[in-house]
Design a protein that fits this description.
296 residues; alpha+beta; D-amino Acid Aminotransferase, Chain A, domain 1; OB fold (Dihydrolipoamide Acetyltransferase, E2P); 2 domains; eight-stranded mixed sheet; 7 helices; 32% strand; globular
Length: 296
Amino acid sequence: MRRISHAVQADSVILDAEALAYNPTSEEFLPFQETTRRRRKHNIEEMAKEVPLKAFVFDILYKDGASLIDKPMVERMKILEETIKTDDILMLTSNHVVSDAKALTLLFDEAISKGLEGVVVKKPESPYEAGARNFNWVKLKRHSAGALNDTIDCVLLGYIFGRGKRAALGAGALLVGVYDPKQDMFVTVTKIGTGLSDEEWGGIKERTKGLEVDHKPARVSSLIKPSVWLEPEIVIEVLADEITRSPIHTAGKVGDEPGYALRFPRLVSFREKDKKPTDATTVEELIEMYQSQGKK
C-alpha cells in the first residue's frame, strides 16, 4: 500500500478494485492461478518481480468522509479520475459510452483478447450497488470452455524484448501465427509469454539467428509490431485454454470484424525439425476448433 499511496489524491478513500497478475512484455493478463502464487509472508520481493500485479480501480465509494454510493456513475467516475493518479501499479479501468450492440461486441472481444473475463455494462445514472443483479449493472462474461482438446501448430513471426527479469534474456514474449493457405500468408493468433524456462528464453536469439529481418516479411499479416521480425520458418506447438475473437489479431479477420486468438497460450515444444511452416494449423482449422469448443 505504501507504494501506491502517492497515487491517491485524498486522505481517505474506499475503492472498488481488483489486483491481477500481468505480463508487461506480452501486455496480457495471466490466469488467476498465477495471481495466487503471490505469497503473503515469504519471498514477497522475488514474487513481485516474477508475477507483477496491477490493481485496477473500477469505482469509488467514499472519499474524505463523504459517501459517494448514491451519486450517479458518471459523477463517481469524474471524482475517481480526480482522485487517482495512475502509475505502474494502480490503474483506472477504461470506460466507454456505447449506444449499439456492435460497439459493445468490439469492446467485449478486446477485453477477452487481453485475458480478461468480459465487461460490465452500467447505466450512466446508476448508483453504486454492491452485489446487485439488475438492469443497471450487467456482467457480460466469456463462455468458459477450459483447455482445448488439442494443441495448435503455430509459426514464430517475431519476438518482443523482455522487461524486468527477462531484460537480460533478450526475448520476453513471442508473436506467433497460423497459416492462411488461401492467401499464402501467415496471420497472427497470439503473443506467448509463458511455457519457457529462463534458459529457453535466453536461447531464442540463437535459435532464430539468420531469420531476423528489419521489416515485416511479405508473407506476414500483423497489426502488432514486435521488437524483432522473423521470417516465418520456425514451427512451435502451443496449448491454450480456448480460442476467442480478437480485434488485434489477423487470423480469420475480414474487414472490421474481429479475428481469432488463443487465450492463455503456453509453448509446448519447438517443431521446426519435423514440420514446415505451411504444415502449421490453418485459419480454417482454427475456426473449426473455435466453433466446436462450445459443443463440449
